[in-house]
Amino acid sequence: QVQLEESGGGLVQTGGSLRLSCTASGQTLRRQPLSSYVLGWFRQAPGKERELVAATRWGTPATHYADFAEGRFTISRENAKNTMYLQMNSLTPEDAAVYYCAARHFATDQYSSWGRGTQVTVSS
User: Fold this and answer.
1) Do 120 and 95 form a contact (C-beta atoms < 8 A)?
2) Residue 7 has pLDDT above 90, yes or no
């Protein structure tokens, strides 16, 4: 499995911005480079189900955003560092959640690697 580590969460006021980072590592990447994977951002708020925020096929421009993220959130990548970012703008209290980075092989539907998550809190 790919090891994933998130960072960048924190407390922000309504209307503010945060940038989350997700760095991929692990021996698996020696056999299957990151370009074989789809990386996604998920979030889970208390009492709610986990939901997809955005996902991208590494090494391609293909990116998908959930409706609530479209126009406010942007995925970017830094290939040399195997790091994916999620720039989040115009945050509202409804965006408060634990945000997780996940990876799946492009030929599968299931995300098999997950980070521990990073907390995003938005004050009103």
Assistant:
1) yes
2) yes
One DSSP character per residue, 56-75 reads EETTSS-EEE-TTTTTTEEE
CA-based Rg of the chain, rounded to a whole angstrom? 14
Per the document, the length of the chain is 124
Q: Per-residue pLDDT for 28 more than 90?
A: no
**What's the CA gap between 108 and 22, in Å, rounded?**
21
User: What pLDDT shows up at residue 1?
Assistant: 83
pLDDT, tens only, 99-108? 999 999 999 9
Looking only at the bridges linking them, the beta strands covering 10-13 and 118-123 are parallel
Which tokens is 98 given?
């634990």
The alpha carbon dihedral of 50, 112, 116, 58 has a sign of: negative
